[in-house]
Amino acid sequence: MAKRALKTGKKKPVEAQPAGEFVTIYVMGEAYRVPKELTIMKAMEYAGYRFIRGCGCRGGFCGACGTVYRTRDSYKLKVGLACQTVVEDGMYLTQIPFYPANKKEYDISQLQPDTQVLVRHYPELMRCIACNSCTKICPQDIDVMGYIQAAIRGDIARVADMSFDCIMCGLCASRCPAEIVHYNVALLARRLYGAKIAPRAAHLARRLEEIRSGKFEPGLDKLVQMSETELSRLYYQERDIEPE
C-alpha cells in the first residue's frame, strides 16, 4: 500500500520543503510538517487550524491554551502553553481549552476570612495526598502543592501570595488524584485577601473623595470638547513624557 506523504498547512508534499527547516508534529493523530521555530499555536495555524476557542492573549498570561503533549519514543506526558512552547519533532499534542472544574458560588462581601472559609467552600482540599503532581505540571512553576497546604492550614494571605502568578489554565486540576480545583481555591483566597485582609490605601480614599467632589469635571469636559487633532497634539506633542 502506498505511503501517504506528510503535508504542510499549504498542502505541499514533504519532498518540496527545504531540508532541516521543518519538523513533524501530530495534531489529534494527524501528521503535519511545520517550520521548527514556530510555537504550537502558530504551528497549528500554519497547518490549517483556525482557533475559535483555546486562544486569548497569545502572550502567556490568559491560560486559555493549555496543551498536553508527548514526544516520540517517550512515555512521559508534558505540558505547556501553546502560545509559548516551541514545537519539537515528533510531538503528539492536544489542547485543553476548558476544564470542567468545580466552582463554588459565593458573595465575597458576606464571607469572613477565617481559617476554615477555604475548606468550607472546597472540602476536597482535605483529600490532598501531597503527591506534588499539581506543582510538576504547572507551566508557571508555581508551588501549587505549597499553597494548597497553606489553604488547609487556613493561611489566606500565604495562598494569595503564592498563587499570584496563576493564569488559571486548569492543568493542575487535570492531574490531581484528589480532584481539587487548585486555581479556584487560590482565586477565592486572593479575593478574600484583597477585600478583607489587605490594608486599605489612604491615597485611594483621598482620590475617591476628589472624584466624588467633582474636582476633575472641568478638565474632563475640556477633553470631551476637543477635536481629534487637538487631542493628538496634546497627547503626542505637548504632554510631559518621562525619560526612558
TrEMBL record:
Iron among keywords: yes
Protein name: 4Fe-4S dicluster domain-containing protein
Domain 2Fe-2S ferredoxin-type: residue ranges: 21-99
Alphabetic keyword roster: Iron, Iron-sulfur, Metal-binding
Gene3D superfamilies in the cross-refs: 3.30.70.20
GO function term, MF aspect, one: 2 iron, 2 sulfur cluster binding
Keyword Nucleotide-binding listed: no
Domain 4Fe-4S ferredoxin-type: 117-148, 155-186
InterPro entries: 2Fe-2S_ferredoxin-like_sf (IPR036010), 2Fe-2S_ferredoxin-type (IPR001041), 2Fe2S_fd_BS (IPR006058), 4Fe4S_Fe-S-bd (IPR017896), 4Fe4S_Fe_S_CS (IPR017900)
A Pfam family reported for this protein in Swiss-Prot or TrEMBL: Fer2_4
Domain of life the protein comes from: Bacteria
